[in-house]
Every structure is written in C-alpha cells, then in structure tokens.
Design a protein that fits this description.
Blueprint: H1 9-19, H2 28-42, E1 50-57, E2 60-67, E3 76-82, H3 96-106, E4 109-113, H4 125-139, H5 141-144, E5 146-156, H6 158-172, E6 181-184, H7 195-199, H8 208-218, H9 222-225, E7 244-251, H10 255-267, E8 272-281, H11 292-308
Parallel strand pairs: 3-4, 3-5, 5-6, 6-7, 7-8
Antiparallel strand pairs: 1-2, 2-4
Helix pairs in contact: 4-6
C-alpha cells in the first residue's frame, strides 16, 4: 500500500487503525456493528457549548446541533448534513464528529439525517427521506429558528450522492435550491472506465469492487440504475443547481466522479469549486486532527460552507 499509494505516515496510521475494525462477516448487522465500533473509536467527547436534540422531522429521525453562543431567539443559518456509509451503514452517531465541529466552527445549526439504509430499504428510500427532511426544514424553519433561505446541504460519500440528488429533484420540481451544496468524495454513478476506477482500483478503505457491491445493494433494479436521483451523473440537465463545492481524494476510485460532475456543473453555468486532495483516501475526513491533509480538507469544507451560509 505504501508503495502504490504513497500516504503520509499519519494517513497510513489512520488507514491501519480504521481497517482494524473491519468485518468480513456476510451478515449486514455484523458489518454495521463493526462500523459503529470504528466510528466510536474516532469520535471525541461531545464538547461544551453545544446543544444536541434528537427528534423526527417529516417522520425521519434527525439530530440538531445548535451552538450555545446563539441566543435562544436567534434565527440562524443551517447545514443539512447527510452521512456516508455506502447507503448501508451509518446513523446519527457515525458522523457526530463532523456535525459537531461544523456547528461550532460555523456558528450555525446543523441537522443530521438518519435516512433508511439498504439493502432492507433500497433506493429510493434514503433519497425520499432526505427530500422529506428538506421540506420539513422549510416548513418548520420558525420552530427550528433557522433562516429557510440560508440552508446549505452537505454530505460525504453516499451522503454526497443524496445531497446532489436532492438539488436535482428540487430543480426538477421547480422549487428553490439550497444556498449551496458541498459534496465530499461523492459517488455519482460515474462510468466504470473513468481513470480513477483502474488507477485506484485497490485503494485503501474503498476499492472499485466495493463500489460495485454498494451500488448493487442500493439501486437493485434496472429502472433504479438509470435514475439520476440515484446517480446524478446520469442527469440530462446540470443547469440551475445550487453553487457546488466538490472535494475528492487523490487515492479514491470515486475521484473522477467528482471531477466529472464539477465539470458538467461548471459548463452548465453553475458556480463551482473543486478540491483534489493530494494524499487523501476515501473516508479520510475522520482523520481530522490526526493528519494535516485531512485538516486541510476540513478547512476547505468550512470555507465553502461559510461562503454559502454567511453570518448576517
């Protein structure tokens, strides 16, 4: 791995620690339990200065993060965060680390979504949940004390897929866009012959074989495999979408999904930013605080969200 993928010592250490929690058990519950153990190992204690609340929005479990620095009656910006995990693992706890930090560093409300998971609930279940939560945010903005015109959507990996699909669906329905979309190493349904699929076929933490397995579990019918709401790169029109910041990892078979999507959005007149993270692997956001490369990725994400949801 260190020869084919020349990672820094810190990133290699993160990869090794992450892999130590992996499970080869075929049972999905065992895999989810192993993933949860890994997430807990990397999740710091909840810091002071933040109120978290679990509740349901449009019938979907969510968790809100609101900094104590905001006065109770302050209406603020919001980031809707959609977690990664290949559409098959992950929950409100798995990405607590990033939602906590974003809320504190941006000084805004973050809403995390516990969407339904495949294979028990294949596409479009997760997509439908995210769309429902978006509309719930808009309808309950007063109660949530958020500005409905200053809600950005962000997600990593499978969550980035859902974030991009949400923007497409809102555009197609003639409804207002989020004020920005931040897609972190997204899976967008890119062609199997994209260079990164072969160049990074056996990359650490996500291989091309893994991608095929996750996609088959998520979109399990020919009709779903053709839907742009499952795979946003299949869309025929990329115009009139929210400004997009797309971050990809150098050593990730999904790298070129994000590169191609940014190009299509830009050519359609959408304001975009692309960050190709040198030395990064898929899932590396969890290495924040352990590797300088992951810290820089996080800094770029915060910068992009600060632009899209500026404090008034």
């Amino acid at each position: 791995m260190t020869t084919h993928y020349p990672l820094s010592a810190e990133m290699a250490s993160f990869v090794a620690r992450t892999q130590s929690f992996s499970s080869s058990a075929p049972d999905m519950n065992d895999q989810r339990a192993a993933y949860s153990r890994m997430c807990r190992a990397f999740t710091p204690t909840l810091p002071a200065g933040l109120m978290t609340t679990d509740f349901e929005l449009a019938g979907v479990p969510v968790r809100s993060y609101r900094p104590d620095s905001l006065a109770p009656d302050t209406v603020t910006e919001c980031v809707l965060y959609l977690h990664g995990g290949g559409w098959v693992v992950g929950d409100l706890d798995s990405h607590d680390f990033i939602c906590t930090d974003l809320a504190l560093d941006l000084g805004c409300v973050v809403i995390a979504v516990d969407y339904r998971l495949a294979p028990e609930h294949p596409f479009p279940a997760a997509f439908d949940d995210c769309v429902a939560v978006w509309h719930g945010l808009q309808a309950q903005a007063d109660w949530l004390r958020i500005d409905p015109l200053k809600v950005a959507v962000a997600g990593d990996s499978a969550g980035a897929t859902l974030a991009a699909a949400l923007c497409l669906a809102l555009r197609d329905a003639g409804q207002p866009q989020p004020c920005g979309q931040v897609l972190i190493y997204p899976a967008l349904g890119g062609a199997s012959d994209l260079p990164s699929r072969s160049e990074c076929a056996d990359a650490p933490l996500l291989s091309s074989v893994d991608i095929d397995c996750y996609q088959a579990l998520y979109a399990n019918t020919p009709e779903h495999m053709r839907s742009p709401y499952a795979w946003p790169l299949l869309a025929q029109d990329f115009s009139r979408l929210a400004p997009a910041f797309i971050a990809v990892a150098q050593y990730d078979p999904l790298r070129d999904d994000g590169v191609v999507y940014e190009q299509k959005l830009r050519e359609a007149g959408v304001a975009t930013g692309l960050y190709v993270g040198d030395g990064l692997v898929h899932g590396c956001l969890r290495a924040k605080g352990m590797a300088e490369e992951a810290d820089e990725l996080y800094r770029r994400i915060v910068e992009a969200l600060r632009i899209t949801t500026p404090n008034t």
